[in-house]
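Researcher: Please predict.
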Amino acid sequence: MFENLSERLEKSFKILKGQGRITEINIAETLKEVRRALLDADVNFKIAKQFTDTVKQKAIGQEVVKSVNPSQMMIKIVHDELADLMGGDKTDINIKINPSVILIAGLQGSGKTTFSGKLAKWVKTKRSKNPLLVACDVYRPAAIEQLKIIGTQVDVPVYTEPGNMDPVQIARNAVREAKKNGHDLIIIDTAGRLAIDEQMMNEISAVKHAINPHEILFVVDSMTGQDAVNTAKEFNERLDFDGVVLTKLDGDTRGGAALSIKSVVNKPIKFVSSGEKMDAIDIFYPARMADRILGMGDIVSLVEKAQEQYDAEEARKLQKKIAKDQFDFDDFINQIQQIKKMGNVKELMSMIPGVGKAVKDLDIDDNAFKGIEAIIRSMTPEERTNPVVLNGSRRKRIAMGSGTSVQEVNKLLKQFDETRRMMKMMTKGGNVARLMGRK
């Protein structure tokens, strides 16, 4: 997401390069390009104009420090305004009451059911909750079955009432059942329609009044751009929801919904979601998203994802092995597994400042490590522990066993030596432990 917008903004900032200071004359062309970039990203015209007017007001007369050129100053101002446009600070969900009830609303196809499962897993693992998923979409074919499958994937029970076509009654009964069985969080997946209609609005309003949810989340497909914002406005007028969830952020989307929705409904974006994997859900941080839009990466989120996969004890053990020059292929493949658990490889790389632009056109998928893993798994335990024994005949056998070439095996051995050397250098001063184990 935002690739085109990022490129357009970068181009607009170049106009100011070489200028001594920001003036009303030299800023005009830059702001015109910024406004065009926002409109192309499907941002509402009124919001785009208001945004550039605010940036202009803050930029002109801004004291430019000697070590910072006008282009860099403009990037800083645009960054802060983008973060403010998307909500400023991150906003948490209200799940302090026991049991807490979360109502999930949105149009059909927005990703409500998948998000319900992701949220259930998230509250279970990150907030130590005991959730119950409730199937109130009684109209869409196989909707209940889909939620059951997702419930199995995330190991969360699903409440259903086969044959009952009354979502209000199902929701009431589910809350009663959850209290009886000790569930401290109830996530209710409601029915959507292909378009907003009065029957759908009346029905979801009735569910809301029947259970008085502590949190209403409106799920919207970010690929629908400005339509998503208009839909959010209509839902908010009827439901007065608490927050927005942007789904399908990995799609070919221009990002207008993320940039416009807060201004239109004055409700925060609380979560973003991408892909079908049940752990592909993140809290929405406006400043971090602004970083990514402006090509600055998102190193904080990357480190947080890494910390989720490592504990301090494992980091200490690994550090000792590296310090003693005992880091082997078993450790190497273990590190690959940890990286894969963190999420999509290309998405992770895009979080590194300066790398996002370099990898945007590369085809990097979750099978990026497949060949490496095949080579390592074709080694004997002795070869993995002591790679120095890997002579020509052994390398040939490994290549045949892994379906690769001797050249690829040699390349991996070279990369492994370089990795081992680099990691040994990092152990000085405890850098490995700091990176992987401490928060």
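Model: The beta strands are 100-105, 131-136, 158-159, 185-190, 215-221, 243-247, 269-273, 281-283.
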